[in-house]
Design a protein that fits this description.
The protein is of the alpha+beta class and 309 residues long. The protein folds into 2 domains: 87 residues, Phosphorylase Kinase, domain 1 (2-Layer Sandwich), CATH 3.30.200; 166 residues, Transferase(Phosphotransferase) domain 1 (Transferase(Phosphotransferase), domain 1), CATH 1.10.510.10. Helix content is 29%, strand content 16%. Strand 5 and strand 6 form a beta hairpin. 39% of the residues are buried. Bound molecules: adenosine-5'-triphosphate and magnesium ion. Adenosine-5'-triphosphate binds next to strand 2, strand 3 and strand 4.
Length: 309
C-alpha cells in the first residue's frame, strides 16, 4: 500500500487565505513584543480566519499560548463562552482564559497546538493506521460536543491539532460568535468543501459537524475533497447532487455512503453511532494492514460507546 499523498493546491480553501480582508480589525495588528493583556506578550502572528487573528503569546514566566483576538466588529456571546470554557476533554484544545485586550478586543487564550492537521498532511508522510487513530480522536471530540450541546460548525483540517500524540479539535470558541442572531449565517463564510447540504438552509446543528468530520477523513485517506469543483457553485452543486468517488476507498464505501447521505435521516444519527461504525470497520481492517512508514502509534484500547438510541 502506498503512503497517502495529498494535493497541496487543494488546501488553499482550508486556511481562509482569501477571506476576511473586509472584516479585519480596524486597528493595527500586534507586533512581536507587544503587551497584549496583563503579563502576556506577542511572539508571532500565526494566522487569521473568519472571526479574528491568532497570535503565539508568551507570559511572564515563559509559557506559550495561542491567543485568538476576535475582530472588533464581531460580537461574542460571553455567557456561552464561559460555558464552553468549562467543557474539558483530552480531545479538545483547552481554553485557558478569555478576556479583553488592552485595546478592548475580545480574546480567547488556548493551549498551543503543535501543528494543525492541514500542515501535517502537507508536510509529512502518514499511514492509514495513523488516520484511524486521528479520526477516532476526532469522533471522541464530537461525542463530547454532542454531550455538552456544543456545535462547532467549522470543523476542518486547520481547526484540528496534534498535541501530546493526540488529535484535538480547537477553535470551538467560535460558536460563541456563531450563536448570536447575526452570527449564524457566518457559516456562509466557512470553507465550502466541508459544508453539509443543510448548512445552506436555516436549520442545522450537530449533523453539520459529523458531515465535516467525514470530509476530513475522506481527505486524509485520499488527498482529495469528496465534493469538489472549479467554482463555489460547482462545489455546491456537487454537495447537493453528486456522490463522492468511493472507488478510491472501497473498504470505507458503506461508511461514507451513510456519512454523506443527502437526506439527514439516512445518516448516522449521532457521533456515538458514527464512532461505533468506524471502530468496527477499522478493527476488522486492522489485521490486514501493514504500516509503511515509521512506527505506528500503539492503538489505545478504547471503550466502546453506547449507541445513542
Ligand atoms: N490553539 C492553537 N494552536 C496553534 N495554532 C492555532 C491554534 N488555534 C488556531 N491556530 C492556527 O492559527 C491560524 C489562524 O486560525 P484561525 O482560526 O483564525 O483561522 P482558520 O483556522 O484558518 O480559519 P477559521 O476562522 O475558519 O477557523 C490557523 O493556521 C490555525 O491552525
Ligand atoms: Mg480556526
Amino acid at each position: 500500500m502506498a503512503p497517502i499523498m495529498v494535493k497541496s493546491n487543494l488546501m488553499h480553501d482550508d486556511k481562509n487565505i482569501n477571506l476576511m480582508h473586509d472584516d479585519k480589525n480596524s486597528i493595527e495588528p500586534y507586533q512581536k513584543g507587544d503587551l497584549i493583556y496583563q503579563n502576556h506578550y506577542v511572539q508571532s502572528l500565526i494566522g487569521s480566519g473568519i472571526f479574528g487573528t491568532v497570535y503565539a503569546v508568551k507570559n511572564s514566566i515563559g509559557l506559550f499560548s495561542a491567543v485568538k483576538v476576535i475582530n472588533k466588529k464581531t460580537r461574542v456571546n460571553n455567557d456561552l463562552m464561559q460555558q464552553i470554557m468549562r467543557v474539558r476533554s483530552n480531545q479538545l484544545i483547552t481554553i485557558e482564559n478569555i478576556g479583553e485586550t488592552y485595546k478592548g478586543e475580545y480574546y480567547i487564550q488556548m493551549n498551543m497546538g503543535e501543528g494543525c492537521l492541514s500542515d501535517i498532511v502537507l508536510e509529512s508522510i502518514y499511514t492509514e493506521e495513523w488516520v484511524y487513530e486521528w479520526f477516532s480522536d476526532i469522533l471522541n471530540a464530537l461525542i463530547v460536543f454532542e454531550d455538552n450541546g456544543v456545535e462547532h460548525l467549522n470543523i476542518k483540517l486547520s481547526n484540528i491539532f496534534v498535541m501530546d500524540d493526540t488529535v484535538k479539535i480547537g477553535d470551538y470558541g467560535n460558536i460563541a460568535c456563531f450563536s448570536l442572531p447575526e452570527g449564524k449565517r457566518m457559516i456562509d463564510r466557512t470553507s465550502i468543501h466541508y459544508r453539509a447540504p443543510e448548512s445552506f438552509s436555516e436549520k442545522f446543528g450537530h449533523s453539520v459537524d459529523r458531515w465535516a468530520s467525514a470530509v476530513v477523513l475522506y481527505y486524509l485517506l485520499t488527498g482529495e475533497y469528496p465534493f469538489d469543483g472549479e467554482t463555489i457553485e460547482q462545489i455546491k452543486d456537487s454537495i447537493f447532487n453528486k456522490q463522492p468517488n468511493l472507488k478510491l476507498i472501497p473498504k470505507f464505501a458503506s461508511f461514507f455512503e451513510r456519512c454523506f447521505a443527502k437526506d439527514r435521516d439516512n445518516r448516522f444519527r449521532c457521533a456515538r453511532e458514527m464512532s461505533n461504525a468506524f471502530e468496527d470497520l477499522t478493527i476488522l481492517k486492522k489485521d490486514k494492514q501493514q504500516p509503511i512508514y515509521g512506527q505506528p502509534k500503539k492503538r489505545k484500547k478504547r471503550k466502546r460507546c453506547i449507541p445513542c438510541r
